[in-house]
Amino acid sequence: MGYNTTVVVLNDALDFIAADNHFGKKLKAAILKVGAFGGQADVTAINSTKGVFVNAATVIESHNANFNAVVAIGGNRGVELGFVDENKLLSNEELLRQLASNMGFDIHRKPTKKA
Of 17, 39, 67, 94, which is least surrounded by CB within 10 A? Predict the structure, then answer.
């Protein structure tokens, strides 16, 4: 089925990405690095006319497409929360319950308030 990769792109760097003719090659290298060694990898972009480098993107994780990866994104970064070994579409509730179970937790619905 192949592989899927989560990448955080910093929108403020879009002009740098558009101007960098080698950004695609750098992104590919970062994805392959994360896929082989784990961790995360920053992808820089350069404005060749001004010589300015900027961290334009970060590869958060790469996984086999047979799994569902759960990732939290915010603050210009991402955190891999875990994987659910399913190759089917799950509802948000099913995904949450399986992720919690993988972490050793059970999810319970809040009790309804009686009027």
Answer: 39
